[in-house]
Amino acid sequence: MRIAMAVVAIFVAGGASAGREAQLAFTRSDHAWAMRSDGGGQHRLPIRTLPAQSPDGKWLAWWTSSGAQSRLLVARSDWGGTRELARYGFQPCFAPQWSPDSRRISYVVDCDIDLARVFVIDRDGSRRHELRARKWNLGGEWSPDGRGLLLCSASPSTPWWFYVVDARTFALRVVPRFHLGLGGHFRWTWAPDGRTAFVETETRLWRLDTKTGRSQELSLGLKAQSVSVSPDGHWIAYQANPGPSDDWEIVVSHPDGSGFKQLTDNRVQDVAPHWSPDGSQIAFASGPNNKSQIYVMNADGSRRRNLSHSSAFDASPVWVRGL
């Protein structure tokens, strides 16, 4: 499907790097798997959910569930030294997130917005602290310099506002002007500059200045989801769809919306793009609803190739090191 997009700048007031070889982790039929970047060496990991790997590549964090109990675990990247950090009687919906120095983890408890809580904890299980601005709280994404976390919070009588939380003192600074209505899908991610965040809902995508609250909508005329920012911050990739169908395609643009380019064009779903650590490739999932596969392509859309080649449902690719 060919996507046409007129980009208009509207300002509203209101993983793996140097060291071990980059690999891809992904889900296959409700289990976590990994493979080399050429598709070889496919192997099942000893856990069901995808682990979050620390920026230094030395640690893993993941949720495991049994019955009504969910546990947050951490281990070395060789799976040794497993430690339980938290245990709750809820089902988790959000992956844990590492601080840039690989010493702390933020995590969200529960899927129900009325029960969701956001915490920060040290890797050894000490110094747990809850992040809270209003009644409902989501997020806890670490800024690239590790000095702050981005929290989204609302109450029954207010919309969702963003807050930057000081990672040392936990003081709250509200992001002015910009807010979201209650309900629906929210997701956001930092740009490498530590000031810009990309905020998406079920259908819309914004670039947000977290200091001034100035925002630019990037998704004019499109549905947009699953933003991934290139390591150098010069490009963003996301899945886009101009109509009511599920025919998603992978597109890229500069953070201000310029340089828009469609990278895929077919009749199946191309979703969940993820930049390689060196910024030269983009991994994504592609296929009909019942048979998604893991693909990779060059950053310009060339050399698109199937890596997983399975008869199963493969999804959610992320770049990792040495699993």
Can you walk me through this structure?
It is a single chain. The chain is mainly β and 323 residues long. 0% of the residues lie in helices and 49% in strands. The protein contains no helices and 29 strands. The protein has a single domain, classed as 7 Propeller (Methylamine Dehydrogenase, Chain H). A hairpin with a 5-residue loop joins β9 and β10 (104-109).
Overall structural class, as computed from helix and strand content, comes to mainly beta
Determine the strand fraction and express it as a percent band.
over 45%
CATH superfamily: YVTN repeat-like/Quinoprotein amine dehydrogenase
Average pLDDT figure: 90
**CATH architecture name:** 7 Propeller
CATH class: Mainly Beta
What does the overall shape look like? Answer: globular
Helical percentage: under 10%
Q: Please state how the strands of the largest beta sheet are arranged side by side.
A: 1-20-19-18-17
CATH topology: Methylamine Dehydrogenase, Chain H
Order of helices and strands: EEEEEEEEEEEEEEEEEEEEEEEEEEEEE
Rounded to an integer in angstroms, the radius of gyration calculated over CA atoms is 19 Å
Low-confidence stretches: 4-15
Number of domains: 1
- End-to-end separation in angstroms reads 36 Å
DSSP summary, beta strand count: 29
What's the short version?
This protein has no helices and 29 strands. The protein has 323 residues and is mainly beta. The chain has a single domain, classed as Methylamine Dehydrogenase, Chain H (7 Propeller), CATH 2.130.10.10.
